[in-house]
Amino acid sequence: MKTVRLQNETIPSIALGTWSWGTGGGAGGDAVFGNYLTASDLKPVFDKAMEAGFNLWDTAAVYGIGASETILGNFTKGRKDVLISTKFTPQIAGDSENAVEELLDGSLKRLGVDHADIYWIHNPADVQRWTPKLIPLMKSGKVKYVGVSNHNLEEIKWAASIFAEEGLKISAVQNHYSLLYRSSEEAGILDYCKENGMIFFSYMVLEQGALTDKYNAQHPFPSDTRRGEAFNIDVFVKLEGLIQVMRDIGTKYNATTAQVAIAWSIAKGTVPIIGVTKTTHIEDAVKASKLSLTAQEISDLEAVAKENGVEIRGSWEKPMH
């Protein structure tokens, strides 16, 4: 198992995402992915991941409006070997002066823990307003490390400067990053993270399943889901060239296209967060964590990905530069 240093913590080279765990609230597994997954569906996935050494779990209060955190909390009860990454989402904060701590307390209660290993500001909304609210939570030990998600370079630097005034630092950045969406790299965010000792966590590395070769123009996503709207039949037709190159590279390593995409993101110096809903997804993580692509293969993947002209951005995202 390859590992990465998050300041004083050793973490796996791949984090596991729970965005599609549970239903409800417009940001649950049902609305986004067309999934209706319960705790009994997901317990074997959790157990297999922990056995394989993947113990960093990424969730958020907004995922299923607490449903994802509740399911994860049921699995982690009484365990000391789990690292929890969860998020403060400004859009659900309301007007309370103590909104950050109140939302964190709700998350900790659902998760059954006394602190978050990584606590994220889910999107910037108001950097000056929300960032300072995390400082007392770090000092009290409720939050071990802080990250910023969906922030552009200017906003990351701004948040970092607010922390620096208190002798603290931002430990991580979490942005959408994949073969189809390299905005954070083009904006210099990956380089900035490397230079400043921050871990860059890449989410949607598999583009919600579009790069797994399990879906195509003949077998698209359910049309009444967010990913079905984003990746329609026309988009899948444009992706055929990239998927073929991914298949060809995968054949050399006895790997799937999903494993190739994950291995690419690791080769780029990021820690991918992959959504896991089946035990086979854990097998993908195990294989991808051991797969080393050559510089030529990385270059080939990026060239064909750029040629297809597909760039899907979430409604919550803005350009990184």
From TrEMBL:
GO terms for molecular function: oxidoreductase activity. GO terms for cellular component: cytosol. This is Aldo/keto reductase. Keywords: Oxidoreductase. It holds the Pfam family Aldo_ket_red. Coiled coil: none annotated. InterPro entries: AKR, AKR_Detox_Biosynth, NAD(P)_OxRdtase_dom_sf, NADP_OxRdtase_dom. Gene3D superfamilies: NADP-dependent oxidoreductase domain (3.20.20.100). Residues 14-305 form the NADP-dependent oxidoreductase domain. PANTHER family: NAD(P)-LINKED OXIDOREDUCTASE SUPERFAMILY PROTEIN, NADH-SPECIFIC METHYLGLYOXAL REDUCTASE-RELATED. The keyword Oxidoreductase applies.
